[in-house]
Amino acid sequence: MAEEKKFAAYICKGCGLGERLDADKLAGIAQKEGKMQVVKQHDFLCNADGVAMIKNDIANEGVTHIMIGACSRRAKTEAFYFPNNAVTRANLREGVIWIRPDTEEARETTQDMAEDYIRMGCAEVKAMTAPGGNVNTGSNRTLLVVGGGVTGMTAALEASKTGYPVVLVEKTGALGGWAAKLWKRIPVHEPFKAPADTGVSDLVAQVEADPSIKVYLNSTIAKTDGAPGRFVVEIATESGGINTEDIGSIIQATGFELYDANKLPHLGYGKSPNVVDQAGLEALAKAANGGPILRPSDGKPVTSVAFVQCAGQRDPSGEHLPYCSGYCCNASIKQAMYFKDGNPAIDTTVIYTDLRTPGNGEDFYRSAQEKGVIFTKGKVGSVAANGNNCTVNFHDLILDDQNAQIEADLVVLATGQVPNSGVNIDMTAEEKADDDAAEAAATEASAASGQPMQFSKKVSVLNLSYRQGTDVPQFKWGFTDSHFICFPYETRRTGIYTAGPVRRPMDMVQAREDATGAALKAIQALENAQLGRAAHPRSGDLSFPKVRLEGCTQCKRCTVECPFGAIDEDERRFPLFNESRCRRCGTCMGACPVRVISFENYSVDTVGSQIKAVDIPDEFSEKPRILILACENDAYPALDMAAMKRNEYSAFVRVIPVRCLGSVNTIWITDALNAGYDGVMLMGCKHGEEYQCHFVKGSELGRYRLSKVGDTLKNMNLETERVKDLEVAITDIDNLPRIINEYAQQIVDMGMSPFKGF
Amino acid sequence: MAKKQYAFYPGCSSQKGASASNYLTSVESMCKTLDIQLTEIPDWNCCGASIGYGEAGELPRHVMNARNFALAETNLPGQDIVATCAACWLGAKESKERIEHSSLLLADTQEALKEAGLQIKVMPEIRHMAEVLVEDFGFEELGKHVKNPLKGLKFAGYVGCQTNRPFGIAGENFENPMYLDKIIETMGGEAVPYDQKVTCCGGALAFSEPEKAQAQIKDIVESAYDNGAEMIVTPCPLCQANVEIYQGHINNKYNTKFNIPVLYYSQLMTIAYGGSAKDAGLNGQVIRAPKLEAIAK
Amino acid sequence: MSANQQMAAKYKNSFLKEVEDQVEMGEWVKMCMQCGVCSGSCPTNFHPGWEHPPQEIFMMIRAGKREEVLTSPSMWMCTSCYNCIVRCPRKLPITHIMHGLANYAHRLGVAPKGQPTRAFSKLFWNNAIATGRVNELKLSIGLYFKDAEGKINIGQGIKQGLAMQKVALGLLKAKRLNPFEIFGGHKCKDQKGIHAMLKKARELEEKRKAIKA
């Protein structure tokens, strides 16, 4: 069909719009200024009759582009669902009448606002095309699970039960991971009173018996290429050969190592065989096989044992782990029961600073108290080895006794989890040097002690062939990055999910939940990839970035900045978009200095033309104009919700939703200031260590870019306050209107922009 | 309503000429109006009170209470034991709970009781008079008998500890029990909100650690005054005595001018039910309550 | 060997076990989770606080600090207000444990000498069981004319008696203190039975504790 465009505007008069606004005037503007070929009003546009009217125009009148002047684009999405058309909204309800007082004095400014939104909607829809969909999709339905521990096995089984084939790769010679090294586990069923069977052998048996799970033991990932739906993964196998598997999506469940107790000589580790870490105690318990646990130094049954919590954890000095691993209190309680359940006469003391036993762990804790395990609140300073005995020196925090002591046959250090997340691709040169030195020292130590070395941070897990690096990006302390609240399993590599302790410290129950969640997300990802649809947070979006290569200067900003590593480079060093890896945030579009990247329904032009469409009153009108570019994930919904609460804000603002602050191209701000806007507010999510950005790095990158706007303002001889950057959370429903009003007042006080009317 | 019968456990302080004799006087008047028949448990003995713990040990405390259970059950079968003293109620209820909870303790108790020729066959219920009023009558019923409402009088309902913790009146909140305020309001008075409603008066430590106890009493009285109360009302003999009789000592020590009457709920009820000042035992106040005496019939 | 030395020897270094066996509700001590709500809820733990508030006492028991616990005046500061019991998130019967510890220290003869609450408790109980009912007049006389060890001390008595004179006069005037109680006053009829019963109860209790030890 020839691309005959026909533009239509529909103006709704329901929800009070008809009473509060002059709809005829709005229709006139759509027709004359907006140049809409079809303009219709309706008393109740989202009802069956209204929707039928639009559908009829599409089917019989050849309407292709639709501008709906009604409620927010976040409302009535099912009624106004026209998948084959370019559609936009002028937000007259949440954006205008709900945030304005219903008074005679306010009527004029309210109408001004509505008219501008109609102008903006018409301008936007004219710059849009309906997304045609990605043609570069893959349809592989196999999941790759990396790691054969409890998390990996659970993910594999869950995926298989849902009907998806799985390839499971385990680097060691057996399935089971850490859990297989445990004597017993923390109970997961009522009454939560005693250690329970690990259940690992059952899991292993299930995996082995499952015909849709293909297990590679003693194998690693040599190379991961491609994108969701069409990954090609090379597996280095036991024999030294390479097997290639076609994969739809990936779950990385590579787990953890215990923090290296060799770094804790002050706690006696390495000085006495009677000081062990939690894994050491599990080994002793396994060796005892239900009998009395023996003291390593002389093989005599242990008569007293002390557990040192937070050993090398929650360390504020920066020398050891700064965080709490969360599971070790329960693990020590469990291990204390290994002794008490066998022989109540064994003195069993847990020395803790804060006992953390969330959920049913509280019952487990209470059960240990009932069994006579002594809990002492104290901070252990040192453990001294004297012959077959150890002396634990600690500061009793309740009795404030600096010189408290406990004698014990055996001391167990709760050292916590360190993620096995592969190479840190974001490491600075300095960090890398430190890391290399540490690694060299560890290699040396392992050679001297004859013990196998702990995992290496230099060895990649996935060996991604992505431009940005071989592994998924990490967040804090080596754990993999994901949006903690909204999409916990979603890494910054679309179609690759992390689950279990590689994502954050956790116990087995949490790891199994994680595995199940990640399996479902991975399935969603490969199904979406097949249909060319985006994953979170723009689920279902069919648009994807298009680049006009003839204008590209090969500056590489897009390839470097893409938070999801979606863009590689081709042999001519032009950006190569892997559409299925793209999350549609538009950060590349915001970054591009020559503005050659755009989406069919979101581009420099769709936003730019809206900015230009606003009617800017002259300098003497006392009607300043403030442009708000609001993140569609948090700020825009917050504004909508403020409207639902009828929180009023200034009629001087004009709001344009953006996909992410990262997609904001500085040209929009320059254009706005040149057009005579008096102020610009940018509303994006929190960035940094506690980021809330739905595209993880988008708001941070956007802000960095926008920090340069100050120079533009200076060059234009404008006050720096004319551009305001705001961190907005979705909960700022009451704050936001106040902040907007304060800013509007500030602009009034500052005076109008001199750039009007040029 | 039909006559209600209970096995009455007045306790040591409610005897004639003892520190809570005015409590007993008013309870008797109140019960007459409500058609409650209290029959004293024959030859009842002391509950041991809380303070007995230091010397008594556990079992001796329980057998003292158990003796009362056995006497009540033998002589007044089927009747709930009703105590007016908070400590008697608590002590007895605690012993009942422990004995019921442990077969060993029950066996030992029976063995000791045998020495006094007694035995527990059926464990009677132990009630406080406030429970009887709230549960067996209810505020609506209690209100029906009001002939002389305590209009315009402001009371601080001082619940204190032992009718409130650890057992309390069913459905009440330990931090803010309401039953006493509701009784005051049912009688036509005003219950002022104040923040020391459940503060401890010092209990037996008023004797052994007077400084500490009086500091607590000062807080209670001060808060009642600050919130506009004209009188304090309580369900407990030791609370009543401690809060009333040490006001002079507190005035000397803290340079205050406390002189607030401290009454029993039963005294308010007697007056509201149309009784005289004498019926209500108002002549038994160390700090007289002229405003209540003035409206008494 | 004193009773105290005997028990210390029997339980060697496990004071917690000793408390579990010998102290009323002592088996609950191990369940404390050291939140400190009891200490913050205690009306007498302020201006000044207890030497060792309940939370601390529980920790001391676990740490085997036998001597410091048993000789402490802390437990004797309990007013039996039960605030700690109703607020304890672990539902420890803290009031009863405090009473039990005080009673145990008293029984072993190591509770602080001259501790006024200890003396009053003894006075009260003996007064109550003498006739089966409390004689308030004798109780006051005993309180104000005897020193903490129970010996008649006229000097101290007159001083305290004078301080209490106004209170006593007020009660006399209100007919709430009866001077004739000195001649006997209220009493139970079956005093013999009560005494026999209590004797038996003490025997049985001692037997039970001895079995545990």
Count of folded domains of chain C = 2
**Content-based structural category of chain C:** mainly alpha
Please, how many domains of chain A? 5
Number of helices of chain A: 19
CATH architecture of the largest domain in chain A: 3-Layer(bba) Sandwich
Tally of separate helices of chain C: 11
CATH superfamily of the largest domain in chain C: Alpha-helical ferredoxin
C-alpha geometry of chain C = globular
Detail the poorly predicted runs of chain C. Answer: none
| Terminal Cα span of chain C | 16 Å
Low-confidence stretches of chain A: none
CATH topology of the largest domain in chain A: FAD/NAD(P)-binding domain
- Name the assembly state: heterotrimer
Q: Order of strands side by side in the largest beta sheet of chain A?
A: 13-19-14-15-16-17-18
Largest sheet of chain A: 7 strands, mixed
Number of separate strands of chain A: 29
Radius of gyration of chain C: 19 Å
Q: Helical residue percent of chain C?
A: 55-70%
**Would you tell me the overall average pLDDT of chain A?**
94
Percent strand of chain A equals 15-25%
